[in-house]
Structure formats: structure tokens, C-alpha cells
């Protein structure tokens, strides 16, 4: 009987302790961010989808069309094409397409690229209703930036 | 066995739990044969999100399988990274610099804490308490931010590489982690006051869902499930890998075999993981984070290799068979939750439905890892 009463009292007390905690936290500053209106800064190492890097000197891409990134990618999302041009050493990039629908953001392509011609973008607001919205023409994106 | 009221006519009915049951954070279906509120038989039906990870591994190069590892157990992805890179390193004979091993331990342990925090929130949610989830996610958010600052992603990490890790940490990470350890230590008493000592939680968990040590052995249960049944087994301690032998930590073991014991094991493990991280930060050696001579195309010599790691849910083993080519000949993944779930059918016989849900929550199921 005594144990029974004791349990009721300690049990009720435990509920009040919990309530006390929630009340205390109720008056503390809010920890959430009202997302579309406020955003948090991205960390510098955030890995978004990949992007071609601009060569500061020439303003063109650094890509030498070696195809290493294409080979490294586990999901075959990269298509690289190039052509020989008069008076230019090596190949010139004509197409760089990323099929973002399949990309797993692993970063193996970036690591495999010796001239460091690709990097991660900081885009994360990627919502769309059509598949085509995620087939990125990275060469065009780079040119659009220039 | 609890008082098992059989109805006169011996009538039973089938109740489908899932495949989209909110209490099972994934797509698991449990076919329950019920006699009123009591469970006569439970049969987990798996495979709704089977993605052939093993077969995928056999169809791509050794390195290309890396991103897959983070997508099995999305809550403790780094331990899965660790298991896979370790077995390939063992196969190919790659030595890992000490600093890289330390970084692996630090990040994997932080990831374990975040996994336990999420389990804690979701488990209480299964039992009907909403607010602890929000407190747990507040703390977990700090870990995600820390890990994002080194790995670049928030959930499905792909941070470890053969021979090291992908990025070195910086001062901010060290300072942030130390601040986080202090913060979480200060918050733990709050969790215990708010949840552990709560009378409703105690009555819902104590002596509910008994899983005997024998049953654990029979089904191969590992992790907090077996440690809650008095079996002192932790891969980090008993088959040490990486630099774990250098740290002083305990393996929490509870003898009660009930859901409360499994709850307590995980809560204690949070503190032990924080201890490991703290010691690792203190002892962190300088040096490279990537081995120097890692061949670009890995071709391990012919052979059969195995490596197990302790994830937040138990022991995860990877067996690879190499035929000397640039793809694995066979890749076998031993996932802990698959075994932990297998005992559910036997353990919940004769239990009330809400109690069985408490038992299921205490198993900490991650469905993508069961289905693989
Ligand atoms: S991040 Fe990974 S999956 Fe995405 S394009 Fe690069 S290699 Fe392919
Ligand atoms: S690896 Fe780099 S240089 Fe080679 S094709 Fe890809 S982006 Fe271009």
C-alpha cells in the first residue's frame, strides 16, 4: 500500500519535472530558422552538383577532355565530348552534360580530374517538375556566367 | 508469457502493420495474426526497398561502390564507409596514416551519437511523446553541421577513401566539436529528467518486450539489442579495428533484457562515444590524411577478405572475394538490423499490440539496411 502511494507520488512528480523542463525551454530563444525568409550560410565544403571551373587567364574551361570523370562516375551521369581544332593544342570541349537525376553527389569525378576543371556548386534549391530540368549543360552554364 | 486470453471460438484476424507505418521509419510490413489485442504470430515481410547493393557492388569498380555504403544505413553512414574501406584496404594491403584513422573514429563516433539521438526522438515518438524528438533534433543538427563542414554532405556521407579520408579537419571543427561535447553533456541530465525518469515511459518499457540472451544468440542479434540482454559484445572492444584500442571507453551492458535495458544501453553509449571523440581530439596526431601510394585503379590480389565494424545498430560485416580484377567477384554485406529484426516474430508472441510497437522501436530498425 505504502509502495503504491509512493509510486503515485513519485510518478506524478516526474511528470511535473518534465513539464518544468518544457516550460523552461518555452521561454528560451527559438532555434529554428524560418526557411524561405531566412537562410543559413553554406559551409565552404558543401557538395552540390558539379560545375565547370573557369580558367582565370583565358576565361575558358580548364577541361582537357580526358574523360576521366566520365569513367570514374559510378552512375554514368557525365557525358564529355570534344573535338580537334586547328591551331589549338589538345582537344576542345564541345559538350559537358550532367544528368543530375542519377548523380549521387559522391565527388569521385571531382577527385579524378587532374587539371581541377570541375568543382561542386553551392546550389541546393533544386526543385522541378520535369526530368529535363535536371539535365545540366555545364558548358552553357559556364558561358552564361561569363 | 503474459496472460494470453484466447477467445472462445478461437477466432483470429490478420492485421497489416505497414508497409507505410509511421512507426517504422521505412517500408517494412509486418503481418500480424491477432487474437483481439494480442499477437498470435508476427511475420515481417521484407524487400520493399531492395536495391541490390551487393549486385551493384559486383558490377562496378572497387571505388565506385563507395557512395553506396552510405545509402544502406543512412543514419550511421560513416560506419558503413569504414567497414567497406577497411576490407578493401585489408585486401589491397594499403596502410592508412594514423591521423586518417583518428579522423575516421572521430567522425564515425559523432555520427553514432547523431544516430542514437535520432533513434531516441523517433522511439519516444513511437510511444506517443512528441516533444523529445524536437530536443533531440536540436542537438543532432549541431552534429550534422559539424560533419557537413568536413564531409560536405549531411546524411549520406561518402567521406572515407581507400588509404585515408577525403578532407582534413580544421580548427573550427575541433573547437566546434569540443563545444558540442560540452553542450550535449549539459543536456543529458535534461533528457533523463524529461524522458528516462518519466513514469509513463517507465511503465511502457520496464519488463516489456523481453529478449533473452539465448534468443539473441539464436538469431545473431548484435549491438544494443544484445547488450541490453546481458551479452557483452562490441566489435570495437572485442575484435578491435582502426585505432579503437587506444581509447578508454566502456561497453554499457544491462541484464534486464527488456525494452528499458536497450533504451539505457543507447543512452549510455552516447556518453561513451563522446568520451572517445574527446580522447581522439586530445591525442590527434599530425600528418597526412591520405596514404601516399594508393594506386588509381585498385586490383586486390585473389582472395577472400572479411572485416566487421560496430555500427549504431550492431556489427556490420563486409566480405569481399577478389579474383584480381578491378571489380569485386563477390560482395556480401552482413547488416545488423536484419538479424535484430528476425527475432521480432518470436519475441512479440502473446504481446499486446502497443507493447509490440515499443519492442519494435527499441530494436532501432533502419529499413534500407535490412533490405539493402
Ligand atoms: S558526384 Fe559522383 S555520381 Fe555525381 S557526377 Fe560526379 S562521380 Fe557521378
Ligand atoms: S576529368 Fe576533368 S579534364 Fe578530364 S574530361 Fe573530366 S572535367 Fe575534363
Automatic annotation (TrEMBL), chain A:
One of its GO terms (cellular component) is plasma membrane. [4Fe-4S] cluster 2 binds at residues 73, 103, 106, 109. It is an enzyme of class 7 (translocase). Its main location: membrane. It is found in: Cell membrane. Its EC number is 7.1.1.-. Keywords: 4Fe-4S, Cell membrane, Iron, Iron-sulfur, Membrane, Metal-binding, NAD, Quinone, Repeat, Translocase, Ubiquinone. [4Fe-4S] cluster 1 binds at residues 63, 66, 69, 113. The keyword Cytoplasm does not apply. Binds 2 [4Fe-4S] clusters per subunit. Residues 54-83, 94-123 form the 4Fe-4S ferredoxin-type domain. GO terms for molecular function: 4 iron, 4 sulfur cluster binding; iron ion binding; NADH dehydrogenase (quinone) (non-electrogenic) activity; quinone binding. Its cofactor is [4Fe-4S] cluster. It catalyses: a quinone + NADH + 5 H(+)(in) = a quinol + NAD(+) + 4 H(+)(out). It comes from the Bacteria. Gene3D superfamilies: 3.30.70.3270. It is a peripheral membrane protein. NDH-1 shuttles electrons from NADH, via FMN and iron-sulfur (Fe-S) centers, to quinones in the respiratory chain. The immediate electron acceptor for the enzyme in this species is believed to be ubiquinone. Couples the redox reaction to proton translocation (for every two electrons transferred, four hydrogen ions are translocated across the cytoplasmic membrane), and thus conserves the redox energy in a proton gradient. HAMAP family: NDH1_NuoI. NDH-1 is composed of 14 different subunits. Subunits NuoA, H, J, K, L, M, N constitute the membrane sector of the complex. Belongs to the complex I 23 kDa subunit family. This is NADH-quinone oxidoreductase subunit I. It comes from Thiovibrio frasassiensis.
TrEMBL record, chain B:
GO terms for molecular function: NAD binding; NADH dehydrogenase (quinone) (non-electrogenic) activity; quinone binding. GO terms for cellular component: plasma membrane. Its EC number is 7.1.1.-. Keywords: Cell membrane, Membrane, NAD, Quinone, Translocase, Transport, Ubiquinone. It comes from the Bacteria. Residues 126-295, 298-372 form the NADH-quinone oxidoreductase subunit D domain. The keyword Transmembrane helix does not apply. Belongs to the complex I 49 kDa subunit family. NDH-1 is composed of 14 different subunits. Subunits NuoB, C, D, E, F, and G constitute the peripheral sector of the complex. This is NADH-quinone oxidoreductase subunit D. The lineage of its organism: Bacteria, Pseudomonadati, Thermodesulfobacteriota, Desulfobulbia, Desulfobulbales. The gene is nuoD.
Amino acid at each position: 500500500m505504502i509502495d503504491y502511494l509512493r509510486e503515485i507520488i513519485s510518478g506524478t512528480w516526474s511528470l511535473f519535472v518534465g513539464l518544468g523542463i518544457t516550460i523552461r525551454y518555452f521561454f528560451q530563444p527559438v532555434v529554428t530558422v524560418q526557411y524561405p525568409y531566412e537562410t543559413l550560410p553554406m559551409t565552404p565544403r558543401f557538395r552540390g552538383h558539379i560545375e565547370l571551373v573557369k580558367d582565370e587567364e583565358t576565361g575558358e574551361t580548364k577541361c582537357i577532355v580526358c574523360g576521366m570523370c566520365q569513367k570514374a562516375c559510378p552512375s554514368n551521369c557525365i557525358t564529355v565530348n570534344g573535338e580537334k581544332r586547328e591551331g589549338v593544342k589538345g582537344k576542345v570541349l564541345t559538350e559537358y552534360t550532367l544528368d543530375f537525376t542519377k548523380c549521387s553527389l559522391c565527388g569521385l569525378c571531382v577527385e579524378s580530374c587532374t587539371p581541377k576543371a570541375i568543382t561542386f556548386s553551392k546550389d541546393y534549391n533544386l526543385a522541378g517538375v520535369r526530368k529535363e530540368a535536371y539535365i545540366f549543360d555545364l558548358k552553357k552554364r559556364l558561358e552564361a556566367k561569363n | 508469457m503474459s496472460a494470453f486470453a484466447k477467445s472462445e471460438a478461437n477466432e483470429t484476424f490478420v492485421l497489416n502493420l505497414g508497409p507505410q507505418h509511421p512507426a517504422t521509419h521505412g517500408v517494412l510490413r509486418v503481418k500480424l495474426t491477432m487474437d483481439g489485442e494480442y499477437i498470435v504470430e508476427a511475420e515481417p515481410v521484407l524487400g520493399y526497398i531492395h536495391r541490390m547493393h551487393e549486385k551493384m557492388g559486383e558490377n562496378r569498380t572497387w571505388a565506385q561502390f563507395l557512395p553506396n555504403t552510405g545509402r544502406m544505413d543512412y543514419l550511421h553512414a560513416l560506419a558503413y564507409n569504414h567497414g567497406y574501406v577497411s576490407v578493401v584496404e585489408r585486401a589491397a594491403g594499403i596502410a592508412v596514416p594514423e591521423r586518417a584513422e583518428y579522423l575516421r573514429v572521430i567522425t564515425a563516433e559523432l555520427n553514432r551519437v547523431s544516430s542514437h539521438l535520432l533513434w531516441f526522438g523517433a522511439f519516444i515518438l513511437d510511444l506517443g511523446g512528441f516533444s523529445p524528438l524536437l530536443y533531440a533534433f536540436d542537438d543532432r543538427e549541431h552534429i550534422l553541421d559539424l560533419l557537413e563542414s568536413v564531409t560536405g554532405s549531411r546524411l549520406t556521407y561518402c567521406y572515407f577513401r581507400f588509404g585515408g579520408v577525403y578532407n582534413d579537419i580544421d580548427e573550427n571543427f575541433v573547437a566546434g566539436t569540443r563545444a558540442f561535447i560540452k553542450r550535449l553533456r549539459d543536456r543529458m541530465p535534461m533528457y533523463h529528467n524529461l524522458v528516462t525518469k518519466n513514469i509513463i515511459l517507465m511503465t511502457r518499457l520496464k519488463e516489456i518486450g523481453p529478449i533473452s540472451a539465448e534468443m539473441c544468440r539464436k538469431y545473431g542479434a548484435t549491438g544494443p539489442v544484445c547488450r541490453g540482454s546481458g551479452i557483452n559484445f562490441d566489435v570495437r572492444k572485442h575484435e578491435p579495428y582502426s585505432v579503437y584500442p587506444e581509447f578508454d571507453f566502456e561497453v554499457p551492458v544491462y541484464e534486464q533484457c527488456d525494452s528499458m535495458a536497450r533504451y539505457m544501453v543507447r543512452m549510455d553509449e552516447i556518453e561513451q562515444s563522446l568520451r572517445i571523440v574527446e580522447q581522439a581530439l586530445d591525442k590527434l596526431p599530425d600528418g597526412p590524411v591520405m596514404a601516399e601510394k594508393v594506386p588509381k585503379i585498385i586490383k586486390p590480389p585473389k582472395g577472400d577478405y572479411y572485416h566487421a565494424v560496430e555500427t549504431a545498430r550492431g556489427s556490420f560485416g563486409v566480405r569481399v572475394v577478389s579474383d584480381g580484377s578491378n571489380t569485386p567477384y563477390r560482395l556480401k554485406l552482413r547488416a545488423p538490423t536484419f538479424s535484430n529484426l528476425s527475432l521480432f516474430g518470436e519475441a512479440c508472441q502473446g504481446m499486446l499490440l502497443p507493447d509490440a510497437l515499443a519492442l519494435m522501436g527499441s530494436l532501432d530498425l533502419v529499413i534500407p539496411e535490412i533490405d539493402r
